[in-house]
Amino acid sequence: MRGADTHKAIETVWRLESPRLIGALVRVVRDLDLAEELAQDALVAALERWPVDGVPDNPGAWLMTAARHRGIDQLRRRKLIERKHAVLGADPDGEAFAMPDLDALDDDIGDDLLRLIFAACHPALSPEAQVALTLRLLGGLSTAEIARAFLQSEPTVAQRIVRAKRTLAEKGVAFEVPRGEERAARLPAVLGTLYLIFNEGYAATAGEDLLRPALCEEALRLARTLAALMPREAEAQGLLALLELQASRQRARTDADGRPVLLPEQNRALWDRLAIRRGLDALARAERLGGALGPYALQAAIAACHARARRYGDTDWPRIAALYALLARVAPSPVVELNRAVAVAVAEGPAAGLAVVEALRGEPALAHYHLLPAVRGDLLDKLGRHAEAGAEFERAAALAGNARERQLMLERAARCRPGAAG
Q: What mean pLDDT comes out for the span 45-63?
């Protein structure tokens, strides 16, 4: 493999491995900027060597080794070798580089990535900054992807991330694992981070593919670790339930060519029944812990309505609409209200759903959100207002960052034109 193919492979490996690499490096050097710098240096080394030598069998281990060697060089140049020597485990000649004794770190989390997410969600940062920083460093998401997830501009999110890193540096924050009440206080930001990482994998905001399974799998792995670490936290169980239930539908969400398959047309035989059982069990645990009205448990309860229905026509849409109404009170947001509109449309008819959508058309947060015109176009189409529907689908296509979603919207717009075949 040479040239462009090698560079594409490096890009893929970097996206998958950089969060773990940064997480492991922070645990060693206890310095976020240095860890990120070392990871970038390892990437540069890969860009230099892999086109010549080929992609190694274990690219993650190769990157970690390269980062360690760069760390030794950095410390030598900065004359910090004596102060960092014990942490980096290198002798003055740089002949060895050993990880510290993990037992000595007195850490019960046991996962580098989850450990760093907790550490980055420091109370010195606003909740928005906590989530943005951890998504950027650890979720493998670009600034543009985070901006879309927050329904905010890319410069705003970029500035938020820069300020967050500056704040941590100015306060000399040590990337240690919080415990007790401090850990519980950081839990909402950690849950929010895992939720957004999964969502980006489940419905990618940009790129050629609708799904990014690696992100979903990583978020699920971390959610399972977190639920086991904090078994008495209802919302940790609620989030796990939600992710398991959503992930159960992945195989049915695209066809053989990668095109989106909408919920009514999905082959439910492809849904993962084991994942559904795991999700329902986690939801039951959340409810037993008194978390039935938590925002993640409520979303899991909505997903459970779909999971329990063997056919689309069996879905309890009135209950879903009622659950969205509860969610809108517990965690109000324009996106929740848009989802409620979809449920109301199925439960009470497209005119009722359209009334909810019309109230959202002036919502600033949804001004560039492609699903608002997509939903409005769908409801207008069902009401026989095809010309208006076509215009909305075209607007949704123009706003969509994902190529698959854009193509779906253009196809729906074409079917709304006069004389188009149904």
A: 87
pLDDT tens across 167-185, in order? Answer: 888 887 767 667 788 888 8
What is the distance between the alpha carbons of residues 325 and 330, in angstroms, rounded to a whole number? 9
Mention every residue, 6+ apart, whose C-beta is less than 8 A from residue 330: 293, 294, 295, 298
Neighbouring-strand partners of residue 335 = none
Average pLDDT over residues 241-255: 93
Q: 413 and 395 in contact (C-beta within 8 Å)?
A: no
Q: 204: phi > 0 → left, psi -120 to 50 → alpha, else beta; which?
A: beta
Please state, in angstroms and rounded to a whole number, the distance separating the CA atoms of residues 157 and 150.
9
pTM (2 d.p.): 0.74
Which residues on adjacent β-strands are paired with residue 118? none
In one-letter notation, the amino acid at residue 250 is Q
**349: pLDDT strictly greater than 70:** yes
Continuous segment of H or E residues that includes residue 108: none
Exposed / middle / buried, residue 348 (Cβ in 10 Å: 0-12, 13-18, 19+):
middle
